[in-house]
Amino acid sequence: MTTPPPPPRDQVAVLILDRAAALLAEPGTAAGMTDIARAAGVGRATLYRYYPSRQALLDALADAAVDDLGDRLEAAGLAHLPVRDAIARVCHAFVTTGAKYIALRHTGHKPADPTATDRRIGTPLRALVRRGITDGTLRGDQEPDITLTFFAALLEAGLTLTPHLGPARAAATVTTQFLDGASPRRRS
Fold first, then answer.
1. Which CATH superfamily is domain 9-180 in?
2. DSSP secondary-structure letter at 184?
3. Which of 57, 62, 153 is closest to 110 using CA atoms?
4. Cα(first)–Cα(last) distance of the chain, in Å?
5. What are the helix (H) ranges across 77-138?
6. Backbone Cα Rg of the chain
7. Higher per-residue pLDDT: 183 or 16
8. What is the pLDDT of residues 150-188, one digit of tens each?
């Protein structure tokens, strides 16, 4: 019986970030680098080769969160979908990258490049909200930034629902809360 070869270096980095995100996303967790190494199944020396400090790990986690969500938003083709469908795709993209965002929220860490974050995430979301207001899908009696602020708050709430409901139900819940509100559905 032979031991399988270790995963390539970039896969180890991804594994470490994914496990760090999952661990740091747990409520009340004050995980240190030793805990993160253990969760990732690597030694401390390996962890420190990839991320020489907790700050470096959190910076990489923030970059990965922005890249992951930005890639998902680009792949979703938001500009080519009806607004309701695009909102649903945004919700799904957000909750499936959720552990990284929850971990960052719990640690208070922010992405190092807010301009890149805005370009990859903020710009497409603002465009979607403006389009929804223009076509009547979203209410037009308030500023687009206010609508986006409420949408962002619901997305954040969706992250806390994901462990209990799973990504699909959490995304659907956020979508309907944003688009239809909390009032009961009217029967046709």
1. Tetracycline Repressor, domain 2 (1.10.357.10)
2. P
3. 62
4. 65
5. 83-96, 98-107, 114-117, 123-134
6. 19
7. 16
8. 999 999 889 888 888 988 999 999 999 999 987 776 655
